[in-house]
Structure formats: C-alpha cells, structure tokens
C-alpha cells in the first residue's frame, strides 16, 4: 500500500494502451464561444465607463464600469474554467485507465491518505456569492430604487432582495472565514487507504489550534447519493442519505502538541454499502465524514469527502475500536445537546412530548425562505397577470405556508404502557388522539424524513402487526437520539430488552 501511495501518479502522462473517453473538446469549445459575448460586452462596457468617468459623468461611468467588471468576470471566468476543466478531464481519464481497480488513486489527497477539510472552499464560495449579489444589489439600492420610488413604482422594492441576499451571504462568508482563522487547516489522516466496504474507515482528525476538548466532539459518517436533474433554470440538486452512523466522543481526546489534538475516527462499514462513484457527474455516490463540537464563540465544524471502496484484500482485518473508551453514553449526548423532546414517567406509563418549533434555527431559516417565496408570488401576480402563474405560484405558496405553520404550531404527545399506546397531535390546543392496543403493535421504528442541508430529520413510527405505520413523532435531527427514543418506546411497551 505504501509503495502505491509514493508512486506519484499525478505527474505521469496517461497510459495510452487503452482508449480513453472523450476529452471534452466539444464542450470546451462551446463554453468558450458561449463566454465570448460576456467577455466582449464586459470589456466594451468597461471602456465606455472609463471614458464617461474621464468626461465627468460619474453616475453613468460608475454603472458601466461595474457592469463591465461583472460581465468580464463571468466571461473570462467561464473561459478559464472550460480550459482548466478539459485539462483536468484528460488527466482523470488517463488515471482512470491506469488505476481501474484502485479508483481512489484518482485524487491526490485520497492517494496519500491526507484529506483537508472543505471549509476553506466553502468560505471562498460564500465570498463569491456575496460579492456577486452585492455587486448587483448595492448599485440597485443606491441608484435605481430611489428613482423608481420617486416615479411611484413601488414594485421596485422587490429588488431589495438582491442586497439582502448579498448581506446574508456576506455574514456567512465572514463567519466561515473566522472559523478558518480560529481552527486553521484541519486534516483527516487515514490509517489505511481506502476505507473498506465490509471493513472500516479509520484515522485521525488533526485540529491544530484553539480547540477546547472538554466539550467533546460528534463524528458522523454518511453515504450520500447526489442526484442532479433537469437543465438550465430547471436544474436541481438533491441528496439522499443511503447510510449513516454517528458517535460522540468525550473530552479526554489525545493531544499531540500544546495547541493540537488528534481525534480518533473509527466506523464499521456495512458489506452491502455502495462505494464512491463519480463517473457520472449527475449521479454520484459520496462518503462524507463530519465533525462538530460546541465551542466558546465560533463552534468547530469540519467536513471531509473520504474514499470508501470495495477491495479484494482487506489488509486491516479485525481490529479494536480506538474510540470505544472515549464514547459518551447516548443519554448524556441528548442532555448535552439540550434536546427539547421530553421523556417523563407518569404513573405506570412513559410519556414522550415533541413540542412545537423544536428545531428553532432551521425553522427560522425555512420561514425566511417562505417569506421570500411569498414576495415573489405577489410580484408574479402584479407583473404577469397570468392565470397560469397565479395558480402555480399560489398553490406552491399555500403549501409552503401551511408547512411552515405546521412546524411552528404542531406538537405530539405519546403515552405508552404495557397495555396501550395513546398518540396525540396538537395544533395549538386542538388535535385528535389515537389509541392502539399493545397486542396489535409490533413495535416502534425510526424512518428518515425530510433533509435540510446536511441534516436528516427522523420520524418515529408505530408499526402494527398488519404492517400499518403511524408516525407518532417527527423532526428528530440526531440519529443517536432517534434510536434512543425508539428503544425507550419499545421498552415502555414491553418490547425488546
């Protein structure tokens, strides 16, 4: 294995013994041609803007220079991306032929077993989006909106969305940048490359600065299917969690220096899992390792895209879990996470209460998105006067508002004893109660619900002997907590251990 890592395949020419796939010349030419008008218009607008500035026309000159800069950036950026992408595609095609049975060698960081956190790339992306929205939004806010309002055009207020989105992106960019400055370059070092289907993923996360180990750290490994559908404006990206495991480690973490910690990572991977696959850009299989820790000030967070493959020779064998002694009991994890789901004993029964608005931060973000969509819906009504737009936008907006109100107002209460289950759903103070006899119930199980960003919310379902399922609690953002709640429900019913 070590000899393969030190082979440095990334500086060698591709092996031409087998035919490679298309080198992407057609796509590169198309993108360059597509970008040429943007670059040309940008340069022309910039030149005209400079001339107007020299002539003393500050307003028109500034606007032309701004638009020229933006269009030039888009045009030349697309050209550079197309040429660089073709070069990368040719290199990858050659390596894919050479390492057909060792696909983890296609990425330099995977090949050497040292993977950097994606945090820096996320910060750069937020800065680009923030500058783009602010680049459009600030001139609109300063020059265009006041003029339109002076003319009585109140619809111009809709354009405030651009600077508002730019401000939100700027805040996110600053936060990500401060996190990078606080914790430095976080690195995941694999014990053996790659992680093995039917085996383990094992290594250490090295945190170089300002990490407080006494708060512990949560580790999560996920297999994700990333699916891209549609094209152009209808293009959408969806991610589906195919498998995940999670564990929480306590504060006694190994220290490798005065301000440096090595967090051990160890996950067993099921034999029926899917390996990493990026041959189809629109349908990829990814494995992500995530580390989170609540810290004073800015919380610690790191994401790594890790190599997990099927191999014929499992060189690691059966080894002990180095994280076993550090793992925190689930009950302590739930208490430390300040879960709002309450479990109490009442007489001979156990009650589980799921309060409304229990995932507050995500709910606030969703509510903001609903308000933005409502603004666009109102604009569509006023601008287009189209029955099609009114029906489509209106129906979608109604569904979003109903869903938002449901999350703010709905609560669930489940009371379980050895003879029966009483499940109540309340909207404010009203709601039905369903009663199930214990002899018709198989038990309680968890099922994946909606996904928001990289958070999967789990539902707790009552399963009858006839195969029917009834959701008695939802919106649990932690797999460990969902498993624990299902186990406690089964115990209260007299099922399981």
Describe the structure.
The protein folds into three domains: 100 residues; 144 residues, Immunoglobulin-like (Sandwich); 145 residues, PH-domain like, CATH 2.30.29. The protein is built from ten helices and 19 strands. It is of the alpha+beta class. The protein is 41% helix and 27% strand.
Secondary-structure blueprint of this entry?
Layout: H1 2-5, H2 25-55, H3 58-98, H4 108-112, E1 114-116, H5 119-150, H6 161-183, E2 187-190, E3 195-196, E4 200-207, E5 217-229, E6 236-249, E7 255-257, E8 260-268, E9 283-293, E10 300-305, E11 308-309, H7 330-336, E12 342-346, E13 349-354, H8 360-384, H9 387-409, E14 410-416, E15 420-427, E16 433-437, E17 441-452, E18 455-464, E19 469-476, H10 479-493
Parallel strand pairs: 3-11
Antiparallel strand pairs: 1-2, 2-4, 4-8, 5-6, 5-9, 7-8, 9-10, 12-13, 13-14, 14-15, 15-16, 17-18, 18-19
H/E element string? HHHHEHHEEEEEEEEEEHEEHHEEEEEEH
Strand content: 25-35%
CATH topology name of the largest domain, in short, is PH-domain like
Poorly predicted segments:
1-22
Note the main attributes of this structure.
497 residues; alpha+beta; Immunoglobulin-like; PH-domain like; 3 domains; 5-stranded antiparallel sheet; 10 helices; 41% helix; disordered N terminus
Short description:
The chain is α+β, with helices and mostly antiparallel strands and 497 residues long. Helices cover 41% and strands 27% of the residues. The protein folds into three domains: 1-100; 185-328, Sandwich (Immunoglobulin-like), CATH 2.60.40.640; 349-493, PH-domain like (Roll).
């Amino acid at each position: 294995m070590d000899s393969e890592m030190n082979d440095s395949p990334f500086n060698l020419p591709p092996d031409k013994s087998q035919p490679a796939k298309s080198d992407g010349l057609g796509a590169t030419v198309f993108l360059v041609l597509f970008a040429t008008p943007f670059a040309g218009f940008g340069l022309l607008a910039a030149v005209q803007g400079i001339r107007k500035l020299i002539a003393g026309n500050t307003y028109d000159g500034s606007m032309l220079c701004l638009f020229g800069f933006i269009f030039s950036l888009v045009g030349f950026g697309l050209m550079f991306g197309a040429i660089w992408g073709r070069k990368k595609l040719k290199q990858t095609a050659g390596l894919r032929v050479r390492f057909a049975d060792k696909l983890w060698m296609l990425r330099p960081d995977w090949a050497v077993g040292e993977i950097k956190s994606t945090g820096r790339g996320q910060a750069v992306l937020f800065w680009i989006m923030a500058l783009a929205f602010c680049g459009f939004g600030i001139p609109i806010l300063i020059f265009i909106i006041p003029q339109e309002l002076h003319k009585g055009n109140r619809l111009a207020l809709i354009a405030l969305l651009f600077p508002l989105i730019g401000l939100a992106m700027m805040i996110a960019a600053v936060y990500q940048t401060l996190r990078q400055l606080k914790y430095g370059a976080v690195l995941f070092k694999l014990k053996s490359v790659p992680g093995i289907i039917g085996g383990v993923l094992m290594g250490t996360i090295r945190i170089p600065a300002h990490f407080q180990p006494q708060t512990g750290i949560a580790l999560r490994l996920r297999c994700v299917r990333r699916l891209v559908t549609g094209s152009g404006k209808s293009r959408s990206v969806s991610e589906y969690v195919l498998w995940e495991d999670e564990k929480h480690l306590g504060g006694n973490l190994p220290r490798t220096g005065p301000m440096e910690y090595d967090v051990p990572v160890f996950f067993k991977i099921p034999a029926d899992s899917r390996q990493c696959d990026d041959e189809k850009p629109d349908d990829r299989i990814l494995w992500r390792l995530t580390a989170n820790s609540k810290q004073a000030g800015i919380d610690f967070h790191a994401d790594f895209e890790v190599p997990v493959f099927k191999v014929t020779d499992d060189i690691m064998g059966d080894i002990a879990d180095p994280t076993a002694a550090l793992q925190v009991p689930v009950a302590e994890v739930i208490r430390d996470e300040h879960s709002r789901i309450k479990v109490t004993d009442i007489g001979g029964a156990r009650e589980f209460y799921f309060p409304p608005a229990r995932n507050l931060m995500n709910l606030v973000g969703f509510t903001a998105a609903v308000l933005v969509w409502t603004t666009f819906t109102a604009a569509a009504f006023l601008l287009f006067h189209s029955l099609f737009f009114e029906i489509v936008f209106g129906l979608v907006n109604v569904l979003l508002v109903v869903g938002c109100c449901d999350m703010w107002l709905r609560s669930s209460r489940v009371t379980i004893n050895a003879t029966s289950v009483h499940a109540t759903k309340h909207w404010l103070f009203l709601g039905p109660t369903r009663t199930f006899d214990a002899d018709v119930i198989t038990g309680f199980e968890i099922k994946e619900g909606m996904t928001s960003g990289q958070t999967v919310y789990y539902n707790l379902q009552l399963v009858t002997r006839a195969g029917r399922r009834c959701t008695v609690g939802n919106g649990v953002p932690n797999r460990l907590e969902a498993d624990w709640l299902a186990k406690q429900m089964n115990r209260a019913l007299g099922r399981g251990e």
